[in-house]
Design brief:
By secondary structure, the protein is an alpha+beta fold. It is built from 8 helices and 13 strands. The chain is globular, with a radius of gyration of 20 Å.
């Protein structure tokens, strides 16, 4: 087998390989592939490889490894490396290709100082773990030292029967509204204070990519932001995680999350209310199906009619 470093010139061929293997469950668009696996600054070139059939020189497998490399004040995953995706053409499995790709990725991540590796959950991730419907993949990684972490993560789904106008929930002394560009600094300060880390990181990238605020519903009391809910649709400035698999749906898909309420204002039912506000905003855009991604709070969202649609098992490998 012939191995070559990660190269964007093979994007179309690798996307076709993905869709042959996974497209019925996780259809990958070239623009999403570019966004998540080529444009992300955290892709580790030394740990990302393509396997080719030496006779045809067609790609038959690939791995994408990541570690934190961005120049930001915040940092995700100190001492952590990520395997974003490892995929081998079904016809070429059992020949040691996946093991070779993983070995190269792990070695490069260790060289970068990683003390542990997570499967998925990277910046611009596809999955928060291994899809639960792929037990053979779980077993393969377990044989290579990866340990499962509880609980399962879920993508949730709800279908709405029509696109009739919905009403925003009522909150005493509070109001819901969409963010504007003028709110950028105040909103980022709120996230930095209340939710530092991934949610803040994603919001920073949102504004860098030209976001103008329509993807964030905020809850205000006395002019102060005390809660938020991210909402996504086909017009968002980049493809957000809860609408990754929109090609599975005939109509436009909407997404909810992340969301949160300032700790000083919790215990008042505001979390559920802000989800309802986000749903209302999306439904009033004519969206009839909405996904809430990467959550363990199945019972919480069931109150609003959501059910588990896809499940993922989280895995980690610790280096000695």
């Amino acid at each position: 087998m012939h191995y070559m470093p990660w190269d964007a010139s093979y994007l179309e061929a690798l996307c076709e390989l993905w869709n042959r293997e996974l497209g019925e469950r996780f259809p990958l668009r070239p623009e999403l592939f570019h966004q998540n696996s080529f444009a992300d600054e955290n892709v580790l070139d030394a740990g990302s490889w393509i396997a080719f059939d030496p006779k045809t020189m067609q790609p038959v497998g690939f791995v994408v490894a990541k570690c934190w490399q961005e120049k930001l004040e915040l940092q995700l995953g100190m001492g952590v490396g990520w395997i974003q995706v490892l995929l081998v053409d079904e016809k070429y499995r059992g020949q040691g290709i996946g093991t070779e790709l993983l070995t190269r990725a792990e070695a490069a991540l260790r060289q970068q100082g990683a003390k542990s590796i997570l499967l998925g959950r990277d910046p611009y991730h596809y999955f928060p773990g291994i899809p639960e419907e792929s037990p053979e993949v779980k077993a393969w990684f377990e044989r290579r030292g990866y340990a499962v972490l509880e609980p399962l993560e879920n993508d949730l789904l709800c279908h709405y029967p029509d696109s009739a106008k919905a009403e925003l929930p009522h909150v005493s002394d509070g109001c819901f509204r969409l963010l504007t560009v003028a709110d950028k600094d105040a909103f980022l300060a709120f996230l930095h204070r209340c939710f530092p880390g991934r949610w803040e990181y994603e919001a920073i990238h949102y504004f860098r990519r030209g976001g103008e605020g329509r993807e964030f519903v905020v809850l205000e009391k006395r002019g102060e932001i005390i809660g938020f809910c991210r909402i996504n649709d086909g017009s968002s400035p980049f493809i957000a995680q809860n609408v990754y698999w929109a090609p599975l749906f005939h109509d436009e898909l909407g997404g909810i999350g992340p969301l949160g309420v300032d700790s000083e204002h919790r215990g008042q039912g505001l979390g559920l209310a802000i989800v309802e506000a986000g749903i209302t905003m999306l439904r009033n855009r004519g969206i009839k199906q909405i996904v809430i991604d990467w959550t363990t709070l199945v019972d919480f969202y069931a109150k609003l009619g959501y059910h588990s649609w896809k499940q993922y098992a989280k895995y980690r490998k610790e280096f000695e």
